[in-house]
Amino acid sequence: MIMKILSLDLGTTTGWAVADGTLPIVSGTINFKSGRFEGGGMRFLRFRQWLAEIHQIQGGFDALYFEEVRRHIGTDAAHVYGGLMAHLTAWCEEQNIAYQGVPVGTIKKHATGKGNAKKDVMIDAARKRGHSPKDDNEADAIALMYWAKEQNGVLL
């Protein structure tokens, strides 16, 4: 089955990966840090603009998966994640794109065999599959992509 998928590790620095059944996984990170002279909502507007751009560049998506975080260390991180997730799910509804949150432990266990794998272990797991992630955000998006492709029967 050929299916175009976008996977995201949501956060101020968002990791992303795109793939289908015909091309290798393409991945990266994008920063949504608020600028010094910006209002608090600008990061979310930039996020929605980026979603629209990658959607257009890639010719659309059949499905979108994001890392579902249930616990945050800080209040600010929780607020950023919640805002990004709200905009993401609303955007997917507008575009009629299926979306699903996948628990962090599920992604880590699929990638490493351990549901509580540390960041460096996730980066190593991506490298073992032939990728060169810039950081743990990109590594997590890559790991999520492999999970999503397997769940959807997309050939790797």
UniProtKB/TrEMBL annotation:
GO molecular function, one term: nucleic acid binding
Domain of life: Bacteria
InterPro entries, per database record: RNaseH-like_sf, RNaseH_sf
Protein name according to UniProt: Phage related protein
Species per Swiss-Prot/TrEMBL record: Thalassospira lohafexi
